[in-house]
């Protein structure tokens, strides 16, 4: 794998910026190809993947819990007066559930995950790069791409869907709590109203895209970290640019994916 | 064992190595001297394939490392030890895990044998008590010695040391030099040692080369080198700065 060198210029002109944008793009593409070349060849480093999954899960658990709860709570709180105006408060559970399951749960969890994890991976790998730990691994005849990058990308890809499902449940609980501030509604009613209105087809696209989001977070963080240079300054740069780049890619791919689902399955869309 | 031919390496317009050629015989300790920034670390990295030279060849046992496939390169690296100038300890692993890493990755030792080797190697560098510490808890000199332990634990046939004694006190420095000498004697290791430490060089070296501005300006024994009338060499080894 030969990655293009990204130059860091103090006061970049527009053409410098464009140039570095395309260098990044081509570098990231090469990095992705390398990932697929190496990901499915042994050794698989299952122990490392497991370790990273647990670490990432533990690390992001508190923040996504809070985020999920507030998401459901606020959504419910804001929808109630609107629905009340039309005498449609019966629809509240399904309104909240639909937005949480199809769009807000997956995307917001992914954005929070990107902020926490992409920067973490970027910082970790870039500091390993600038202190020659990655070189040390290479001279020990261990493939650092496989050991450091592939394992992390697998971990982020698999943990984000799990986190998202968890966030959805927390958000619905938050939504329910907000409802009972206004009127007495039983949990059973709330639950049944959701189950009656949500189909499997609502669930699948939302969760399916989180695999891609998780992949983006892992791959962008690892790319930025792996290609870092320039000492401690490079470490800081890797972690911040990783967050910006992965959040942006998540939003763009979400837009594209929503469009594709609507186009492929008009009934679901 | 090693024949380096016409090694040339630049970074942009910075010409670091310029047509460097030398040999290292089996079981020999070769010391590399040179001012800071002349490309000694770059030279070592070119030998192990971490950097790709612009020109030139590195023959190890008659085979050219530069043209190795990944598989062959890894086979070569399994029998190689590299002490990085900054030690390059894995931050996320304890000292024990750092030392176990090359052993467990490339060899099939039982856990019992691994434990034994870890303790024995730590004893060699005088740091048995650090076995369960994290790298961040170690001093600079300790890190260096753990890095040394990690690179010799597999008892490789070829060792490359990038400044093994910098940052160490005179006593430890001498102990490490003697350790390098013993490794050569007992295990018939071949070594290339980059150092500024004249005492260390005197203890370990069979032969020495001096690198300056990307070229080899001297090759011979330490004694010949320090007694040389060449202005640059005199300047390098004397206590005064000689101008004229
Ligand atoms: N990856 C790199 N990219 C660009 N320039 C580099 C790189 N590595 C080394 N250099 C440059 O090559 C020159 C030689 O560096 P090197 O690290 O080999 O010096 P050295 O002889 O080991 O010095 P010291 O004794 O201080 O360790 C330096 O000017 C350095 O700036
Ligand atoms: Mg150096």
What's the topology here?
The complex is a heterodimer of chains A (269) and B (244).
Chain A: H1 14-39, H2 46-85, H3 92-130, H4 133-139, H5 144-182, H6 187-197, H7 200-226, H8 231-264
Chain B: E1 2-11, E2 14-24, E3 29-34, H1 40-47, E4 55-60, E5 63-64, H2 70-78, E6 80-83, H3 95-106, H4 111-124, H5 140-152, E7 158-162, H6 170-187, E8 190-194, H7 198-204, E9 207-212, E10 215-220, H8 222-226, H9 231-237
Parallel strand pairs in B: 3-8, 3-9, 6-7, 7-8
Antiparallel strand pairs in B: 1-2, 1-4, 4-5, 9-10
Bound molecules: adenosine-5'-triphosphate and magnesium ion (MG).
The site of magnesium ion has 4 residues of chain B, from helix 1.
Q: What do these coordinates show?
A:
- Helices cover 83% and strands 0% of the residues of chain A.
- With 269 residues, chain A is an all-alpha fold.
- Chain A starts with 13 loop residues before the first helix and ends in a 5-residue tail after the last helix.
- The model of chain A has no long low-confidence stretch (mean pLDDT 91).
- Chain B is an alpha/beta fold and 244 residues long.
- Chain B has one domain: Rossmann fold, CATH 3.40.50.
- In chain B, the strands form two sheets. A six-stranded mixed beta sheet of chain B has the order 6-7-8-3-9-10. In chain B, strands 2-1-4-5 form a four-stranded antiparallel beta sheet, covered by helices on one side.
- The chains are: A mainly alpha (269), B alpha/beta (244).
- Chain A binds chain B through residues 124, 127-128, 131-133, 135-142, and chain B through 45, 48, 50, 74-75, 77-78, 80, 82, 84, 86, 88-92, 101-102, 105-106.
- The site of magnesium ion has 4 residues of chain B, from α1.
- Adenosine-5'-triphosphate binds next to β2 and α1 of chain B.
